[in-house]
Amino acid sequence: MSLQVGIIGLGMIGQDHLRRLTHTLSDVSVVAVADIDRKRAASIAPAGAELCDTPHALIRSQKVQAVVICSWGPAHEEQLLECIAVGKPVFCEKPMVTSEEGALRVMDAEVAFGRRLVQVGFMRRFDADYRALKAVIDDGSLGLPLIYRSVHRNASVPEGLYTSEMPLNDTLVHDADISRWLLNDEIAGVEVRFPRRSRQGGELRDPTIVLLHMVSGAIVDVEISVNIEYGYDIRGEVSCETGVAALPNRPATVISDRYGIRQAIPADFRERFIEAYDQEFREWIAAASQGTAAGPSVWDGYAATLVADAALRAAQSGRREAVSMKPKAGLYAETSR
Amino acid sequence: MSLQVGIIGLGMIGQDHLRRLTHTLSDVSVVAVADIDRKRAASIAPAGAELCDTPHALIRSQKVQAVVICSWGPAHEEQLLECIAVGKPVFCEKPMVTSEEGALRVMDAEVAFGRRLVQVGFMRRFDADYRALKAVIDDGSLGLPLIYRSVHRNASVPEGLYTSEMPLNDTLVHDADISRWLLNDEIAGVEVRFPRRSRQGGELRDPTIVLLHMVSGAIVDVEISVNIEYGYDIRGEVSCETGVAALPNRPATVISDRYGIRQAIPADFRERFIEAYDQEFREWIAAASQGTAAGPSVWDGYAATLVADAALRAAQSGRREAVSMKPKAGLYAETSR
Amino acid sequence: MSLQVGIIGLGMIGQDHLRRLTHTLSDVSVVAVADIDRKRAASIAPAGAELCDTPHALIRSQKVQAVVICSWGPAHEEQLLECIAVGKPVFCEKPMVTSEEGALRVMDAEVAFGRRLVQVGFMRRFDADYRALKAVIDDGSLGLPLIYRSVHRNASVPEGLYTSEMPLNDTLVHDADISRWLLNDEIAGVEVRFPRRSRQGGELRDPTIVLLHMVSGAIVDVEISVNIEYGYDIRGEVSCETGVAALPNRPATVISDRYGIRQAIPADFRERFIEAYDQEFREWIAAASQGTAAGPSVWDGYAATLVADAALRAAQSGRREAVSMKPKAGLYAETSR
Amino acid sequence: MSLQVGIIGLGMIGQDHLRRLTHTLSDVSVVAVADIDRKRAASIAPAGAELCDTPHALIRSQKVQAVVICSWGPAHEEQLLECIAVGKPVFCEKPMVTSEEGALRVMDAEVAFGRRLVQVGFMRRFDADYRALKAVIDDGSLGLPLIYRSVHRNASVPEGLYTSEMPLNDTLVHDADISRWLLNDEIAGVEVRFPRRSRQGGELRDPTIVLLHMVSGAIVDVEISVNIEYGYDIRGEVSCETGVAALPNRPATVISDRYGIRQAIPADFRERFIEAYDQEFREWIAAASQGTAAGPSVWDGYAATLVADAALRAAQSGRREAVSMKPKAGLYAETSR
């Protein structure tokens, strides 16, 4: 018996998940969709799926057992609260919400409900390379992790649309979340430094160096470059006490030709993380079918919100800005894995 | 509407495919099983699946729309012919059959039926690394392929059970099939050479060098080592006119420690090709749902049989032994990709 | 006609250079030595070499055309001034001097002399890998350098002897010098951060992260780990506007065995930089034979002193500490290459 | 006291060695030269060097203690015999001689003399990568070597001048010599196979596969491609009983840009083996200064001649052609290292 899913928001990422849930994954059916552009929704919806006028209607629909939220960020809080109100499992694309207060409201609601219902869309945790890296760290044979270097290079961003705040409140969240997860740690403070500006991005402040000071004392050293042109190049390296572990090159054909001995670099995040997205939903479907959620939780979405806020403050102040989280509810005790 | 599948043979590989069809893949259900060990079948069969007394019964079952054959090799021919007789799509593990005559009988039957029904289990063609390598070759920017080196290293084989003929009639078929597919070519002749014997395998003749002379003149240079101990190490490199293309290392964590800077090597074929097996069945399900077959065909199974025979002759004679194939039926015109 | 050289100081590094000048390199002879341990000097000195009672005597010796200083740091200033006073070319191991005032006194003397006489022992500039990296950066095809990551990992340091100041005033100088040289830039400010402490070094503050803010705005992000146990692992990576360039793995045999596919990592700096030391002296001999010096200059030694001072201050203050250099004399105009 | 050397032949390779002996290496002086083009010799000879009218005159010159032969192959035998006659150490570029009989005459002369005088120019044995590979094999921890794959790819050869025989009697000698040395083995038989012809070389028969059957039973599998266009790409991989060891990539800067993540490949043999040539002469100078020779011997030159002959016969016959060597004189007992 497959999970009956409704999707809110059919923009680029919503359409991608629709395709994934319809054609790639098993034990799931898309039975309802809602989009502010009803015409678009009608043209995209799979045969037999209900076209809902509002997210509210979709969440309340009898046919819908679980919800996938791909609407824009500011709409997430209300939709999440609605899902929790009716006790339906929900997958929510990042950002979970757009303010600390919003995160706390969602967290309070879920804690009051008493069972995890929300999975937040940090897909890197489902990537095989990151999982293998974490297994090496967790194994402990290299000693404790001391420094994690996270490199986040994007070929390009839409000029004008991508502002100088976005490396910190949009791009950084992936590095911040994967750092917390890899190191089994929380972020205590954030510093931001701006190197010489790349001329690739016009007025955009790019690249950016961010230092995340973890509660354990480990430091996460992040490079964010969003106009590097040559590809989507994600790197991660953990310096431990007696060894170093790093993400591998992606497994591209090794070509020897006039350009040297070489391997192609992924063009964009879709190419790089396509399997991680599939796996993310595979695990969501399994948990949602049990009426609950797995993977990144509201706690993780809350942490991401705090880090983005602290990073923006740190960019202004030039100083280390603290991240201070509320006590962690028992509900989230085991979700950092 | 999912494809209703029956599985014949629930040994190691049969159980693995059962798990795959039940838990990993979408649009498919296992509705019947048959195994000579009826008790084993009963304990393994998914809830609701029919336990058939014979392969014949399974193939004829009204519930079964498509068949997966995982029985032992000598039984394949009869089961394939039966599937073709009733017009049901069938996936057949290698070896397709065990004699040239058997291959011809299956081919004649399928040609008479007039539509492809059989997919043979050469899973390497579905592996992402091989597909990327083929794309580079087919692209033509490196010129024509002249030499293909295929390295097939196995950690160990069961002593006593794995005979000195098996590198040539069991292991080699993967290298032979992938060579034909990568180079869009056929095999015209086979030579076999035996280097100094490894003491790892006792009396076993190991390793083996095989030269496959392709119709185009390209030479495939195969190393088969079946007791290399350190892992399952599959390599492939194509020397073209103006460049070389090779399979990459598998994407394992890069560890720097007292053993150097290093990446783990897969332990066995399951670890190495797990995704290829999934993809193989994904494409089979799609084709079988249309009442036909895709990927490696009876023609490819026929070629594999001829190459194994020629290799055994070449091992005896020390000379080049010819592979001569019947004319190719139109049915198979496009199956080599 | 070979260059007649005198060596001051026959400790570990002095003996290594003696061997190099005697057995490896051409166009040079060691004609005099001086060491505070006269007995050691006598036992080590090559046949026919003069045993000088003092550095002063060696520098003034008629036989000595050029001097190599391998004494301990605090003695360097006086010996350098003496060499300049008599107009003899001199190679001086790092640290050039141990105070900013000392550096200025040596610089003033050399500028007054009017010709470069001093080469400082920053051997990395002579390493083929660093030179190739610099050629890529200088070429400009990747755009301007924005971030340089320098990783400096040492297997171990002598417990007790290596203090928590030494990462900053001893180890860092190599990263600082190579950064100035690679980027054709000067250092304007220094920040120091201490990650979670490694238990490998007992009370030692290790590892260390240093951010060097260059005059251009580029940021150099340094990791210093001095007890990493697994080897001497030097890494460098330059993020430019449209590409990234990095030091390669050292060319060690690629072994596939039970530990994976792997390459050995150098054990220590001697193994890693043995060829760089040879080349450093080759170029020194060529310049000294012309009565002058090449490579790293007093200006570079002065910069190193300022950076070490600023790093120690930054470790205390937790803030960015400025490096402010005097105007650069014309004598040093072309020495950054 | 430096070794007084005379050079016969100042073509491309002779000039390169002249430069090496004059400017790079220590303990050696070029005191005489001879070339059939006396004008060229006069313009190139270092100051003070004697211009000899004939090789004979140079070899007999009182000033000359040791000889470097860079003349064309057919002249080598007479010059080597002359050097042996006067008991002078001699370095001889490959081919040592051009016939089996010639090799035997030189060997008989040296054996009669009673001490090694001749070093043959197989420079690969002095390359650090090959030496490291041999150390791994000799160490024995991977078990015995069973298969050695030697890949010899050349960017291009002069059209018209480079004939279809030359892969076998000119290029192959390097692979054959390094195989004997790496495996501590001798060659017993040779097979040659011609894959599909590359269109890069016009009528030239290229590439070539050669199988060398070693006395131990190990097989050396050689790919020779002489018009691969993209660079000079030398590869070597030894399959042992429990592991595999291979030459590494050359240590070129790792660049990430629009062409992928990549490292440059050497352009030609001079770039690839420049340090090996230096080391080859360093060791020759050391041995010649003691009145003898080290490294590749007349025995190795003799073996190379036999292999080239057998390879040419095998190309004709399509069969395995035997290499049968005379018993090895005691003089050469330890020279395979």
Kindly describe this structure.
Four copies of one chain form a homotetramer. With 337 residues, chain A is an alpha/beta fold. Chain A has two domains: 3-123 and 276-301 and 328-332, Rossmann fold (3-Layer(aba) Sandwich); 125-268, 2-Layer Sandwich (Dihydrodipicolinate Reductase, domain 2). The first copy, chain A, has helices spanning 12-24, 38-44, 55-60, 76-86, 100-113, 128-139, 166-183, 269-289, 298-317, and strands at 3-8, 28-34, 50-52, 66-69, 90-92, 118-120, 145-153, 187-193, 208-214, 219-225, 233-240, 244-246, 254-257, 260-263, 321-322. In chain A, the strands form three sheets. In chain A, strands 12-11-7-10-9-8-15 form a seven-stranded mixed β-sheet, with helices on one face. In chain A, strands 3-2-1-4-5-6 form a six-stranded parallel β-sheet, with helices on both faces. In chain A, helix 2 links the parallel strand 2 (28-34) and strand 3 (50-52). Chains in contact: A-B, A-C, A-D, B-C, B-D, C-D. Strand 12 of chain A pairs antiparallel with strand 13 of chain B. Chains A, B, C, D: Its EC number is 1.1.1.18. Chains A, B, C, D: It catalyses: myo-inositol + NAD(+) = scyllo-inosose + NADH + H(+).
